[in-house]
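User: I'm preparing a small set of examples for a lab meeting where we compare how different chains pack in three dimensions. I only have the primary sequence for this one, and I'd like the structure in token form so I can line it up with the others. Please keep the answer compact; I'll paste it straight into my notes.
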Amino acid sequence: MTDTAPRPTLEAVAARAGVSRATVSRVVNGGDGVREPLVERVRRAVEELGYVPNQAARSLVTRRHDAVAVVVAEPETRVFADPFFALQLRGISKELTAHDNQLVLLLTEGRDDHARVGRYLAGGHVDGALVFSLHLDDPLPGLIQRAGVPTVFGGRPGWSDGLRDVVYVDSDNRGGARDAVRHLVGLGRTRVAHITGALDQTSAVDRLEGFKDVMGDAGQELVVRGDFTPAGGERAMRELLDRCPDVDAVFAANDLTAAGALRVLRERGRRVPEDVAVIGFDDMLPIAEQTDPPLTTVRQDIEEMGRLMARLLLHGDEQTPPGTPAGVVLPTTLVRRASA
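Assistant: Understood. Below is the structure token output for the 340-residue chain.
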């Protein structure tokens, strides 16, 4: 066995720098009122001794934990299977890491998990929360409000219980859907169908509304409910072909849904895009570039959405001038490949 060297203390740093312990504490914890020459002496002593602040003690002084909760309102089987979540988490992680903040991931499988997340946030363990993939009946917004932690939501809020002035980041789901359907109509397609996402989420509702903006009432019989998964896309595509065999175009609510629809079209002997044109939504490259044929889709910058959520949480007052709307909606673009 070898002896472990004692961990440098605040007092040791003060002795090395020739200043008081209080001065070292103010410098280490980011306080004001210390002259620059003394700041440099303290920083030099910290580096020479390899001093690492005690996070628990530092939190008592600064009331900050340098940790942010990322709450995903989905079960882990969905989160780890859907690349959308990986992209958004990557954007969040990059921004938090750049500002020396830790990411604490919280997933919700059911009502018991909602209560657990609410207790954790109310316990003062983190400086704020980033919350996404909410469903319309989700109790999380109310629990988070009661916890009193600063929060940024991913996606347009869809609740109506008095929580109005929330900060959120979303993409132009409705506008992107309109662009996709207009493109299909511009190709001369007359039987344009839509496979929706989970309609208890605002992104799916907005994409459905974008489809209706172009197709109007004429498209109602060609709307089939999906759930943002490949299996949901397969199920909906079979229903569409059985009910409306003359369908000649499909706008799918996301790329995973489109991938499922493409598999069924291939099974049924329908050529894409000759017989049926297909467009997705997201532009997740591991999916969109590897489907057969490669997928035309609406691109939203998922990673940037995550980064912007974290940026608004960490620097909300600096990033948002007075009078700026609480919601930030990022643009979408149509990416043309071989499927439409």
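A couple of notes for your slides: The two ends are 68 Å apart (CA to CA). Residues 55-62 have pLDDT under 50 and may be disordered.

User: Perfect, thanks.
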